[in-house]
Automatic annotation (TrEMBL):
Residues 204-311 form the Pirin C-terminal domain. CDD domains: cupin_pirin_C, cupin_pirin_N. Residues 44-148 form the Pirin N-terminal domain. One of its GO terms (molecular function) is metal ion binding. This is Pirin. Signal peptide: none annotated. Binds 1 Fe cation per subunit. Its cofactor is Fe cation. Fe cation binds at H82, H84, H126, E128. It comes from Actinoplanes auranticolor.
């Protein structure tokens, strides 16, 4: 699992050692297993948020783990051109390569550890697809796509695109050096990530070595979600067993605890986690297909605007690849 890494985590800044007597660890409110499905033109995904009530996810709407899959030549697939309005899409590429292009000229290529952050706002068209080279050769493909809601006041803002290289992520470790924490957005233990967000959120990809423990301070006014990308261990001070494809939704508190099992599968060198949380928006959510609004009437208007071409026009030419 390449993402971004370092040769020696002990040179990195460390999150603080939490008081062993602290009572602020968040309990696990819900543990769910992501069902498998297919997205776009047929690439496999795990629906990480399936079965979790909307109020426990707020401000997040949707999370797909794309892959992990080793494509044969000719097999890699993407999505067709499609619209969005009312939220932000965050695509984090762990392994492999993905091209993005939108109707306003934004986009490029992301690969191991890169993130593309598209604020759809009032409306945009975009496409995500593997580059021709990957289609021809085949290869590993593994990533995440997250949908972050926008508050009512920001639903119709101008679209925006952020290209976040993996090397820009803020890298941290725990006091014993048993983890590598990649802060993509928000703030973890006073260390800010590069992503600019309209809704206050934290996103981090954590590699937790076998037998290691992660005690992570977390803003008490944010929700807290831990999704396992690989490996197995326990979550919470109650040590609930958790493994690949499972999501832990936490209750109130100001710290998160995860332990990696000492014995992982032979092909999994470490436990991999996607940890996220944000300040709930607490507004009505009307979600259908590619639109996330506040009311059914706004959804109907979004579909009408799309059909009338008000959300953008597909460019005549595909953007050249960038890196």
């Amino acid at each position: 699992m390449p993402a971004i890494t370092v040769d020696d985590v002990l040179v990195l800044p460390r999150v603080p050692q939490l008081d062993p007597a602290t009572t602020g660890y968040r309990p696990v409110r819900r543990l769910t297993t992501a069902p498998s499905g297919y997205e776009g033109e047929g690439f496999p995904v795990r629906r990480a948020f399936a079965g979790v009530p909307t109020n426990e996810l707020d401000p997040f709407i949707h999370l797909d783990q794309m892959g992990e899959v080793d494509y044969a030549p000719g097999e890699p697939k993407g999505t067709p051109w499609h619209p969005h309005r009312g939220f932000e899409t965050v695509t984090y590429m762990i392994d492999g390569t993905m091209d993005h292009q939108d109707s306003l000229g934004g986009g490029g290529t992301i690969t191991n550890g890169d993130t593309q952050w598209m604020t759809a706002g009032g409306g945009i068209l975009h496409i995500e697809a593997p580059p021709e080279k990957l289609v021809t050769s085949g290869g590993l493909f593994h990533g995440l796509q997250l949908w972050v809601n926008l508050p009512r006041a920001a639903k119709m803002i101008a679209p925006k695109y952020q290209d976040i290289r993996g090397r820009e992520s803020t890298l941290l470790t725990t006091p014993d050096g048993g983890s590598l924490i990649r802060v993509i957005a928000g703030e973890v233990a006073g260390h800010a990530g590069p992503g600019s967000t309209f809704t206050p959120i934290n996103l981090a990809h954590v590699t937790l070595q076998p037998g290691a423990q992660l005690d992570l301070p977390w803003q008490p006014d944010y929700n807290a979600l831990v999704y396992v990308l690989a490996g197995r261990g326990t979550v919470g001070v109650e040590q609930r067993p958790i493994q690949i494809g499972q999501l832990a939704a936490h209750g109130a508190g100001d710290a998160i605890r995860v332990n990696a099992d000492r014995n992982q599968d032979s092909n999994i060198p470490a436990m991999e986690l996607f940890i996220l949380g944000g300040r709930p928006i607490r507004e009505p959510v009307a979600h259908y297909g590619p639109f996330v609004m506040n009311t059914r009437e706004e959804l109907m208007q979004a579909f009408e605007d799309y059909q009338k071409g008000r959300l953008g026009v597909i460019p005549a030419e595909r953007l050249p690849h960038t890196s």
